[in-house]
Every structure is written in structure tokens, then in C-alpha cells.
Design a protein that fits this description.
The chain is mainly α and 281 residues long. Helix 9 packs antiparallel against helix 12 and helix 9 packs parallel to helix 13.
Length: 281
């Protein structure tokens, strides 16, 4: 009896899952910033470690697509390029698009790929899709060097509109992250969702003015076309660097609001589902 009384008096801790929003770990994200950097650099190294060309794939990917598009759309189809050299016209669009595509595809399946780490230690799980975002930014900066060389070769200098580029990079990042947060937790349960997202993004490229000018879209359908957030990103890059494309317009706020809603709801969905991620993995 004495032993029992002593045991009953021992302090105990009861762990319960958070309800609703709980406390979103914004402070924890800062505390785990070193882990975020480690995951980012590790993913970049692992991506190119066993490849013969290594980091050169960062440059070859948009360059090869630029050559294919230039031959098919610029040469055979003779699509307009707003008076600009077609290789420069399409390469400028390929940079933000490849960043968006690669980041989204990488983030959607990131939780499944990090199973070993998730099941062993605690950290804010949202760090994993965010690390894919930062990895894509590094690839974007490397590929941007080729764009600078092309602009020098064609004798085209950027205007003062260049200041809008950071906003459009942030806009593309928010769009990619919103899709990733919505889908990453779902992919844990249904693995084929990742393939569906990949196919959907491949189709979306043809609904985005990457290989052609937005001037080809009929006026009556342009408003629907402009609901695509990546429309504004692509056009904004061309406007900021080449002086063509679409300048920021009030209607762009519709896409901005859509992305903000998707991002906030994606954070909520991810935060709610991360309680049971390890169970499903």
C-alpha cells in the first residue's frame, strides 16, 4: 500500500493532440532554421550527386526546352514572340515556370521521401516542403545567369521594371507552396495523387504563356485565362526584363487573393493532418 501511494503521487504528463488550429509553430520554424538549411543543401547535393553532369542539369533543363520550343513553336509554327528573339522570349518564361513546376513536384512528395527522418525525431513538418522551395530558388539563381548572358548577346538591357521580379518570385513561391501544402499531407494517404498533380501541372503549362505569347488568347477568354496565377508570373518576368508581356493590372489582385486563400487553408490542412502523418507513412 505504501508503495502504491508513492507511485500515485508521482507527477505525470498527459499528451493530447491539438484541436483546431492549435498553435501554429511559427516560432519553431525560426528555432529549426538550421535544420531547414541542412535539408535544403542535402536535397540539392543528393539530386545531382550520382549524375554525370551534376549541377549542369540546372542549366540544361531550361536550355533544352528553349531549343525544342524555338524549333517547334518559333520555327515551324511561326508563333509571334512580341518582336523579341524567340529563344530569349521563351527562356525568360521557362525560368519561373521550371521553378514553380520543380518546387511543386518536389514538395508534394517530400513527406514520403523523408519517412526515415519524420519517424525518428520531432520537428515542424512544414519545414520539409519549405526546404524544397529554397532548393528551387538556388536552381533559379543559377539558371538566371544564362538569361543574363542571352540578354547581353541579343543586346537587350532590362528597364526600370526590373524591380517587380522579387514580387513575382514570391508570388510563384506562394502558389507552389499553397498547392504543396494541400497535397503533401494527402499524398501520405493516397500515393497516386502525386502522379495526378504531375500530369495536371504538365497540362497547365499549355494554359500558361510559356511557349507562346498571351496575345494569341481571344479577348473574350482572356479574363478566364488570367485567373491562372502563373500567367501573371510569366508575363511579369517578360515585362520586367524584356519590356514586353503584361504589366501589373488591378485584375491580378483576383489571383493574388486566390493564392492567399489557398495558402492559408493549405497551412490549416497541413497542420491538422501532420498529427497522423507518421501513422499513415
Amino acid at each position: 500500500m505504501i508503495g502504491t501511494k508513492k507511485i500515485n503521487k508521482l507527477p505525470h504528463t498527459q499528451i493530447l493532440p491539438p484541436k483546431g488550429w492549435g498553435e501554429f509553430p511559427l516560432r519553431e520554424l525560426w528555432e529549426y532554421r538550421e535544420l531547414l538549411w541542412f535539408l535544403t543543401t542535402r536535397d540539392i547535393k543528393a539530386r545531382y550527386r550520382q549524375m554525370a553532369l551534376g549541377p549542369l542539369w540546372v542549366l540544361l533543363n531550361p536550355v533544352v526546352h528553349m531549343i525544342v520550343f524555338s524549333v517547334i513553336f518559333g520555327g515551324l509554327a511561326q508563333l509571334p514572340s512580341d518582336g523579341l528573339p524567340y529563344p530569349l522570349f521563351t527562356y525568360t518564361a521557362l525560368l519561373p515556370w521550371n521553378y514553380f513546376l520543380g518546387t511543386t513536384n518536389g514538395s508534394v512528395g517530400s513527406l514520403v521521401h523523408q519517412l526515415g527522418l519524420i519517424s525518428k525525431v520531432y520537428f515542424p513538418r512544414i519545414i520539409i516542403p519549405i526546404s524544397a522551395l529554397f532548393g528551387g530558388l538556388i536552381d533559379l539563381m543559377i539558371a538566371f545567369l544564362v538569361l543574363i548572358a542571352m540578354m547581353i548577346y541579343y543586346g537587350i538591357m532590362p528597364s526600370w521594371n526590373l524591380w517587380v521580379l522579387p514580387f513575382y518570385v514570391l508570388f510563384a513561391s506562394a502558389t507552389a507552396l499553397s498547392i504543396s501544402l494541400w497535397c503533401a499531407a494527402i499524398v501520405v494517404r493516397f500515393r497516386d495523387i502525386k502522379d495526378i498533380i504531375s500530369y495536371g501541372l504538365s497540362i497547365l503549362m499549355y494554359a500558361t504563356p510559356v511557349a507562346y505569347s498571351a496575345s494569341l488568347v481571344p479577348e473574350r477568354w482572356l479574363w478566364l485565362y488570367q485567373l491562372n496565377p502563373m500567367y501573371w508570373v510569366i508575363e511579369g518576368w517578360r515585362w520586367g526584363l524584356l519590356g514586353s508581356g503584361q504589366a501589373p493590372q488591378p485584375f491580378m489582385l483576383v489571383s493574388v487573393v486566390m493564392v492567399i486563400i489557398l495558402l492559408i487553408s493549405g497551412i490549416w490542412i497541413f497542420h491538422r493532418e501532420e498529427r497522423t502523418i507518421v501513422d499513415w507513412l
